[in-house]
Amino acid sequence: MSKTSRKPNTYLSKTLFMKGLQCHKALYLEKYSPELKSEPDTETLLRFEGGYEAGEYAKKLFPGGIEVPFEGLSHDEQARKTQEEIKKGTKTIYEATFFHDGIFVKLDILHKGPKGWEIYEVKASSDLKKHHINDISIQYFVTVSTGLPVKKAHIVHMNKEYVRKGDIEPQKLFVINDVTSEVINNQKHIKDNLKEIRKMLLGSEPQIDIGSHCEDPYKCSFIAHCRSHLPEHSVFKLCGSKKIMWQLYNEGHNDMHKLPMDRLEPKQRFQVEVFLNRDVITNKTVVKQFLNTLTYPICFFDFETFMQPVPPFDGVKPNQLIPFQYSLHVIERKKGPLKHYEYLAEPGKDPREEIAKGLISQIPADATVLAYHKSFEIGRMNDLITWLPKHAKKLQAIVDNIIDLKEPFSQRVAYHWKMQGSASLKVVLPAFIPDMTYEGMEISEGMAAQAAYFRMQQITDNEELKNLRKALIEYCKQDTLAMVKLWEKLQEMAK
Description:
Layout: E1 12-13, H1 14-22, H2 24-32, H3 42-58, E2 66-67, H4 75-88, E3 92-100, E4 103-113, E5 116-122, H5 130-145, E6 150-158, H6 170-173, E7 174-178, H7 180-185, H8 187-201, H9 223-226, H10 242-250, H11 266-277, E8 280-282, H12 284-292, E9 298-306, E10 322-331, E11 338-344, H13 352-362, E12 368-371, H14 374-387, H15 392-400, E13 402-404, H16 407-410, E14 414-416, H17 425-432, H18 446-456, H19 462-494
Parallel strand pairs: 1-4, 2-3, 5-6, 9-12, 12-13
Antiparallel strand pairs: 3-4, 4-5, 6-7, 8-14, 9-10, 10-11
Helix pairs in contact: 1-2, 1-5, 12-19, 14-15, 18-19
C-alpha cells in the first residue's frame, strides 16, 4: 500500500500499542489492511474468555466499586465518566478509562489506597510474564499523563497453589505483584516506542520478514498473510530445532526439496530423506515387540478436558485441566467384538465422580489400556486419584496398565513420508488410514471440543444442544476408533 493511498491513522489503544511492540508490520496492517488478518482461532477466543472471567472475580478484591461501561459510550465519554467518579471521591473504579494524546486505555481496576491511586492489571495466567510489564506500563504512562498521580502499579494473576474449598476466596485466588519500580523504569522504553510507532504509521508498510516474533508473546493475526509466500513443503515443516529452521530460512533455504542435508539434525535428515523418496518405513521386529506387550482385554481410551482460571469445583486449582468427556473402545479377547463406551458431562455439572465410576466399571480388570500420547491421560487420571481418594486403588490399577500407542510412530519404527516428522494422531491417521480423517467433522480438534463444552452451558435450545452433544461424542469416538485402526495397521505391518 502506498503512502498516498490512505489517510494516516496514529490512534492507539493499549492492545494496538502491544501489537506494535511485537511487530510494526502487524500494527500497520491492522490499521490500513485489516481485511488481511485471519479470524481469531479457538485458543485465542478461549484465552479472551478466561481473561474476562478472571477480571470479574478480581473485582471482588475491591468490592463496591463503580464500573465505567464500554458499550454505548465514546472514548471521550468513558474518560469523562472516569473523571466524574474520581471527583466524586469514588475509591474503586472498574474499567477506569483514560485518553491522552490519541492513546486510549482502560484499567482493570483503579483503586485509591492509603497513599494514593493504584493500578491493578488482571491476568488469567498463573505467573507473571515479561510482556505484562509493557502492558501495564503503557496504562501507567497514559494515566499519569492525564494528571492523575499514580503511586502503585500491580499485576494480578492466578495463584497456581490455590485449591478451591467451598466458596471462592478472592484474596487467596490471586497473587498481587507490586511492579511499580519496573513500570517507572520502563517509561523511557514506552515513550521511545510510542515515538517510533507513530512515525512508522505515517510512512509506508514496514518491510519486516517473518520470524520468531510472529508468535511471541502471542500468535499474530496476520501470520497466514505474512507466510503466504512459503511453499507447501517449507523448511518449517521440519521437526526438531526451530533455531535451525530459522537459520536455514534466513539463508534462503526455504523449500523442503532443496535443504542442505549436512546442516540438519539426524531426525530432520531422516524426515527429509523419507519425504523425498516417498518411503514408508516399517521395522517389523520392533513393531512386533511392541505388540507383544499388549494383552487382552485391550482398551483404547481418550479424554477431552477443559480448564478455567477460576476453579469451578472443590479440589481444583486455577487453570487445571478437568476431564468432561471420554471415549473407550474395548476388545475383550482375540477376534472378539469391538465394544464402545462414552461419557459426556451435563453442562455445569461436576463430572469427576461419574467419570471415575464409569472407567472403573467399563475397563476390565488387568486390561491393557492404550492411549495416544499417554502422559496426558495419565496426568488426568492422577488428578482423579487426588480428587477422589476412595477410588484411588482402582484408578491406579488402570494407570499402571496404560501403554502409549504413539510409541511406534514417534520412534519411527512405523513411519510414513506424509507424517512430515510429526507423530500427532491427526497426522498419523490419514497417512496410514487414508479413508479415515477428521476433515468435514463439525468438531475436529481438542480446543474446539473445549469451546463446544463451554457453549453447551450457554445454549437454551434443546435441539441445538442435542446436535452439539452429538458432534462432541462423534469427535471423541473418532479419536479412539482411530487408535483401533492404527493398532490393526501395526498388526498388518508385523506380519
